Amino acid sequence: MFTDMHNHFVYGVDDGCADSDAMLKLLRALHEDGITTVIATSHITPGQRHFSLDDYQAHFEEAKALVEHENLQMQLYTGHEILYTDAASRYLREGKAMTLANSEYALIEFMPGEKYERLCEAAQKIRNAGYYPVFAHIERYACLSDIRKIEELADRYGVRMQVNCSLFVRKQGLFRRHWIKTVMKNELIDYVSTDTHDMPGREPMMKKCYDVLIHEYGQTAADALTHKNAQDFFS
Ligand SMILES: [Fe+2]
User: How far is the CA of 97 from the centre of ligand 1 (A)?
Assistant: First the structure.
């Protein structure tokens, strides 16, 4: 039922799963958590840090074979989580950085202390390259504690916003709780995702997140954030 559009299950290419066994455990856990569609967004830093795309592709195909062998009803798709650098838009244009499930949407992340101006520049350049930016785990960026800046990114550049499930599931401090309430009230969040890297320690918690969303914000919001909004990646 759920779509996880930010995940590091492909092993041996980034700080996600270390080996095939770890990947299998994580795939089982994702399935158990009610996830039926997953995008494998391994980290890439354009112009700086690369993994072998051949390894990624081979291990991704291995994951598909495991899912089929285990009879897990789960669709797997390719992607990247792109740490924004000056080379990012060029990498997208040249096909060296992968979009979400081969769509027009690209998952972009930043260092937590990145300046707001740099986020705007990234959004503009990604749009100019012909793609729609989806900003990963926006709860991490200090400059977006100012909610008007999230609105501005969405209004000016069409940026879509992803947060991790843990934001809703784990206990948060007063300021963070206020931030969550305000972004939800203003419908500024488009997707929740597990961003799982490995088991144990970062177990998927989509189902728990879904339950919290229903309880706090209602069925429509819960459905939108856990799978409906992500349908755009597959149309
Ligand atoms: Fe990630």
Answer: 15
As a whole number of angstroms, the distance between CA 166 and CA 76 comes to 22
Residue 228's H or E segment, with its range, is none
Q: Are 91 and 85 a contacting pair, CB within 8 Å?
A: no
Closest Cα partner for 129 from 154, 152, 95? 95
- Alpha-carbon distance 41 to 78, whole Å? 7
3-state secondary structure of 205: coil
Q: CATH number of the domain that 129 lies in? A: 3.20.20.140
What's the whole-model pTM score? 0.97
DSSP 26: H
- CA of 56 from ligand 1 middle (Å) equals 15
In the chain, the number of structural domains is 1
Question: What is the C-alpha to C-alpha distance for residues 234 and 216, in angstroms, rounded to an integer?
Answer: 28
Domain that holds residue 143: 2-234
Distance from residue 109's CA to the centre of ligand 1 (Å): 8
Provide the 3-class DSSP secondary structure of residue 75.
Answer: strand
| 33-84 pLDDT per residue, tens | 999 999 999 999 999 877 788 999 999 999 999 999 999 999 999 999 999 9
CA of 11 to the centre of ligand 1 (A): 13
